[in-house]
Amino acid sequence: MQNKKHSLEFEKPLLDLEKQLEDLLQSSKETDLDFTKEIKGIEKKIELTKRDVYSDLTPWQKVQLSRHPNRPYALDYIERVFDEFEELHGDRLFRDDAALIGGPAELDGRKVMVLGQQKGRNTEENLKRNFGCPNPEGYRKALRLMKMADRFDLPIISIIDTPGAFPGIGAEERHVAEAIAVNLREMATFEVPIIAMVIGEGGSGGALGVAVADKVLILENAYYSVISPEGCAAILWKDRAFASDAAEALKLDAGELLELGIVDEVLTEPIGGAHRSWDEMALTIKDVLAKELSLLSKRKGEELTRNRYEKFRAMGRFLSS
Questions:
Q1: Same domain as 226, residue 265
Q2: Which of 99, 110, 217, 232 could cross-link 246 (Cys pair, CB 3.0–4.6 Å)?
């Protein structure tokens, strides 16, 4: 899946060079001729082009990268970061929701509860996963697992990657807004460490419903916003074509979110984005999660809940002279 070619418009110059390199390597293999000098020249040009293309991305380009079809999803990271993951199913009220997965696992020998919003790689998987948009039963399943974690003193790690909660009639009939609201309230009370990490899209209440955490991390090319750029453009400009302008105005990219105090740390991605090196990105995530869990484990339950409450109450508070 990692090797499947898919390029965004601003990546085209890089993809052209990579194709040239691929063809040259193939020719060298087939003709048994030495193209070492030419290969090294193209490799150097690729590295320079990578830095040029990805060094100054606009907020809209970062949104596009966050949605890249080859970008690692929650299960891809769970497989590489955690051991002994055991997926648990169902909310014990209605049904299982495959858009939100979760279960106990181990991180460097420490037992944790992992939650993740999961997208699909193809049409069949996306239909099963509902394109990563959880229904109310997904949030209720998450709550069931978080309550279990709180009962057994397991830290909670929530992996966020969703355009938003599913807005369909069935979801509204089963009270998706209420399910998210209950999660917000209950997550504020859990006396175990909670870490939320946005790996791709972090859309609105669909993301926040599993993100009331002691530490909120975000990958460099992920976004976290009250609304998608397209949705914002449709409201403000009556035209989704203004999505790039909306992305700029929303201040939804990782660096600005850090400045505003919405997230606590930005995780650097491999040059070109997480989709270019799943293993490298997973190693970074594993190191940061282990570090943060070690620090949070020194805090007592009451201190965790108090700090968590104050953290979220402080968001959006500004002083002006």
A1: yes
A2: 232
Cβ atoms within 10 Å of 129's Cβ, excluding its own: 22
CA 77 to chain centre: 10
Helices (H) and strands (E) in the chain, counts: 14, 7
pLDDT of 2: 52
Pair 304, 192: CB distance under 8 Å: yes
Euclidean distance between CA atoms 266 and 253, whole angstroms:
10
What CA–CA distance (Å, rounded) separates 213 from 158?
9
Residue type, 164: G
CB 254 within 8 A of CB 218: yes
> Are 96 and 194 found together in one domain?
yes
Same domain, yes or no, for 122 and 15?
A: no
Could you tell me if 83 and 22 lie in one domain? no
Question: How many angstroms separate the Cα of 56 from the Cα of each of 10, 242, 311, 312?
Answer: 11, 20, 31, 30
Same domain? For 106 and 234 the reply is yes
The rounded Cα 162 to chain-centroid distance in angstroms is 8
Please count the structural domains in the chain: 2
Q: Is residue 193 part of a domain?
A: yes
- pLDDT per residue as tens digits for the range 64-110: 999 999 999 999 999 999 999 999 999 999 999 999 999 999 999 99
Ranges of residues in the chain with a pLDDT under 50 are: 1, 3
Is there a single domain that holds both residue 41 and residue 145?
A: no
Q: Is residue 1 part of a domain?
A: no
Q: How far is C-alpha 272 from the chain's CA centre?
A: 16
Q: The domain containing residue 37 runs over which residues?
A: 10-55
Q: pLDDT tens-digit profile of 269-312?
A: 998 899 989 999 999 999 999 999 999 999 988 999 999 999 99
Residue 38 sits in the same domain as residue 90 = no
Q: pLDDT at position 266, please?
A: 97
Distances (CA, A) of 242 to 159, 230, 245, 246: 29, 7, 5, 6
- Give the residues across from 101 on adjacent strands: 116
Average pLDDT across the chain, whole number? 91
What pLDDT is recorded for position 26?
Answer: 74
